[in-house]
Design goal:
251 residues, alpha/beta, Rossmann fold, 9 strands, 44% helix
Length: 251
């Protein structure tokens, strides 16, 4: 019960890794804001949590829209009286089509950067006054291993996740004086229920061969490190990016 009575906002929480986060934080006593563009799926996650005795509320939010982000955070604070943890998980990812960078149109580039970069920025902006007043808070941003590997035909996604790492460092320097920790996670090869066009079945063999641990990742592999960064167990860490990648790279 590390998060008993704490309030946790999780974006992109209606499915995949975000859904797993929501269940895990609720199971440890947290009050979870399930934030997603798909309200029906978000409400389904809330129903699952409530059925098991947890506390959660669904919010329909486009994280690239500042007005709706700030309204959501205000509603969460009005409902539960505080915000202790922000998990910036929402991203455009599984629906992307891989293509040479010359073929990426401005509209597609902007859409990816708006959600994956600006969304993290807006959510952090919205929670910062509350966390500063509390003199405590945890912000966990989700980046990607592609920032290091520079994966081909994926330039907009690579750039957006690189922005997440850079923003994590910038926010850590600005928020540290108020006792707010800002860290990032860089995952690789995590399989969820969501279909992906970016990795074909025949590509998995070569991907796994490049890893130190010879298996695919699961949502469970993300939960432990995320909860570590969101808890007091990581109180003396900030501005860091932790690799959750089966030993794809060392640093």
């Amino acid at each position: 019960m590390r998060f008993k009575d704490q309030v946790i906002i999780i974006t992109g929480a209606a499915q995949g890794i975000g859904r797993a986060y929501a269940h895990s934080f609720a199971a440890e006593g947290g009050k979870v804001a399930v934030v997603d563009m798909n309200l029906t799926k978000a409400e389904n996650v809330v129903a699952e949590i409530v059925t098991t005795g947890g506390t959660a509320q669904a919010f329909q939010v486009d994280v690239s829209d500042k007005t709706t982000v700030f309204a959501m955070v205000q509603a969460v604070n009005d409902l539960w009286g505080r915000v202790d943890v922000l998990i910036n998980n929402a991203a455009i990812f599984s629906t992307l089509k891989m293509k040479p960078f010359e073929q990426i149109e401005p509209e597609e580039w902007d859409a990816v950067m708006d959600v994956n970069g600006r969304g993290v920025f807006y959510c952090a902006q919205a929670v910062s006054p509350i966390m500063r007043a509390q003199k405590a808070g945890k912000i966990v941003n989700i980046s990607s291993s592609v920032v290091v590997t520079g994966r081909a035909n994926y330039a907009h996604y690579v750039a957006s996740k690189g922005a997440v790492v850079a923003l994590t460092r910038a926010l850590a320097t600005e928020l540290g004086e108020d006792g707010i920790n800002v860290n990032a996670i860089s995952p690789h090869g995590i399989v969820t229920e969501m279909p992906r066009d970016t990795i074909k079945p025949e590509q998995w063999e070569s991907i796994i061969a490049s890893q130190t641990l010879k298996r695919k990742g699961s949502v469970e592999d993300m939960i432990g490190v995320t909860m570590f960064l969101a808890s007091t167990d990581s109180q003396y860490m900030t501005g860091q990016t932790l690799n959750v990648d089966a030993g794809l790279r060392f640093n």
